Amino acid sequence: MGCRKNLTRLTLSERQAFVNAVLQLKANGGYDRYATMHQGGLNHGHFGPAFFPWHRELLRRFELELQAIDSSVNIPYWDWTVANLNAAGTESLIWRDDFMGGPGSGANFAVATGPFTGPAWNLRRNRFDIFQFPGGGGTIAGFVDEFDYTLMRGLESPHGASHSWVGGTVGDIAFAPRDPVFWLIHCNVDRLWAEWTVAKSGQAGWVQYAPASGGPSGHNLNDTMWPWNGGTSPFGILPWTTVPESVRPADLLDHRVLNTLYDTIDPPCRAIKPKDRLPKEFIKERLPKELIKDRLPKEFKERLPKELIKDKERVKERLPKELVKDRAPKELGKDRDPKELKDVREGPKRFAREEIGPFIPEELRPDLTQAALGFEPDLAELQEELMLRAEELRGGGPF
Known about the structure:
single chain, mainly alpha
């Protein structure tokens, strides 16, 4: 099964593999057939109940052709309701020059950056701000909250807004697939349909698909859909339908049956939670022992179970003998006033009472330099891992 992921989760190699497969499909003549199919399916795959299943089959077949070129490739999706920026907010991850390229430029709005430029593609897009995005999350949420398929499929309208925001080639319904952004838009549409199906399945009032009958030809639950059925409208039997197939909405209601999974709903593809980023063994091997055993930074003490921080015997073993009660050096007792000696012996207690805080002599402090550790620690990540580990020990956690 292939994992379709948010484009923001793609690795560099995954981005490159997707782009390279699309370019090769374009070079061998396979890519343009999908633009022709979409053009012919304007009324068959749009403005009606079959909008979701028709595009699901189109996506599936396109993805299979990409996988024939590179088996590792899956179509990523673009969640256009949020910004798709890097962690620092300095870069758009979708409009990178090694991915979808940038917006249009010049008098003719031509796409002049990225891998899909030149006369072979002849793409145009609006001159949009790459740090902005179409939005519409609230509207989409309203549609996917519906129980009836007839109401949910109103999602076709805000999907159209993403096409229009990018504009140019993908903003023209007849030619939209000529711009590879089309596949990222419709992969997101398919994800939303899959999420709706999984979330609403079995609930009272849920209508998975409608109509079962009585609707326009090709839109009823068990109608076969063009062009895969080899029908003669509008272009007749084209090379990809020389052997007619029965492809019905009823066959496409469960995305998992089609060997496609999404990272938001399917466990094998789910995004890794922060607490699972590093195995416990990694923490133990890479952290200085002083930070693992009894020497956790002060701010973590409040997050640890009490039994791990009140073991006095272990504390005594870690402290210099001179600081442990009743173990002051003998020479400190000679010719000293008893009261003065008492102050020396109770020094650590007094410090604690006065909230001066514990201290570790210079010679006993762990060497946390890069040279001593043998690697450059990511302190922020280590801090997060320690806090999550403490939550687990306490029997809970943020997830």
